[in-house]
Amino acid sequence: MNKKYRKPVIAGNWKMNMLHSGTKDFMDELKPLLPKTRGCEVVLCVPSPLLYGMVKACRGTKVAVGAQDVSVHDKGAYTGEVSASMLKDLGVKYCIVGHSERRAYHGETDELVNAKTKKLLEAGITPIICVGETLEERERGLTMDLISLQVRGTLCGLTDAEVRRCVIAYEPVWAIGTGKTATAEQAQEVCEHIRSVVRKLYDAKTARSTVIQYGGSMNAKNAAELLACPDIDGGLIGGASLKPVDFSVIVNAACEEE
Ligand code: 13P
Question: Is the pTM of this model over 0.85?
């Protein structure tokens, strides 16, 4: 992390876990464990039916609420979809786009992720844009090229000021939910590469202002080492964000790390 230029963002991604009826208890347990300082942003990205309750449960805390996906459409006959303005109206501050699970199971492309990113920015919601390679792509030596393509594709047409309002999450697909974390060196190398792509596309100021997270089996044990890397400005945390104690250890590591 480089706190001179960027405030770290620790975001939990609950995926399709937990229930509305459990959110208050979760927050009651998490609240006293959170640091008093505002050294980092804390976000919980929860399933759509949990958003309203979560916004209420997080009132008066430093936890912002995030969604996990958004429609590319504004309104109308799109059964099952949730628009950016609906999220905004609920008090949602962040939204994940292009998670590898949506790319894999719902065929999401960089083009679609780019369109969703634009909808979120228009609504004043911070997009958390996910990029990452599969194990096969890594073994074939394609990681850096693929990441460049994903970053270029998802940021296409955004102004420098808009990019500075985005968070980019590097999530190697082989590290998600597998317990197999990228080493700090591997994660730093790709996050540094993402920053260099942003620098080439925009400028030095935009590159140094953009928050870049690591995600993939980040947990209470390995978070401090990953967050100590200069280009890793936070984490996108799946499994460990379902446990208040583990999640709070990661948040505290980000808030303390200088
Ligand atoms: P895990 O932390 O469970 O590996 O999940 C990472 C992730 O996909 C967060 O978006």
Answer: yes
* Ligand 1 center from residue 9 Cα (angstroms): 15
Q: Would residue 50 count as lying in a domain?
A: yes
**Cα-flanking dihedrals φ and ψ of residue 145, to 5°?**
-65, -40
Cα-to-centroid distance, 101 and ligand 1 (Å)? 10
- The pLDDT of residue 257 is 55
User: Does any ligand 1 atom lie closer than 6 A to the CB of residue 218?
Assistant: yes
Domains of the chain: total: 1
C-alpha separations of 184 from 4, 144, 181, 191, 230 in Å: 21, 16, 9, 10, 10
Q: How confident is the model at residue 36 (pLDDT cuts 50, 70, 90)?
A: confident
Dihedral of the CA atoms 199, 203, 208, 209 (nearest 10)? -120
Encoded tokens for 101: 């699970």
Residue 13 has pLDDT above 60, yes or no: yes
pLDDT tens digits for range 64-97: 999 999 999 999 999 999 999 999 999 999 999 9
Indicate the SS3 state at residue 185: helix
Q: Residue 116 sits in a domain of what CATH number?
A: 3.20.20.70
Domain range enclosing 210? 9-17+41-75+82-256
In a domain, 3, yes or no: no
Residue 22 lies in a domain: no
Whether 33 is covered by a domain: the verdict is no
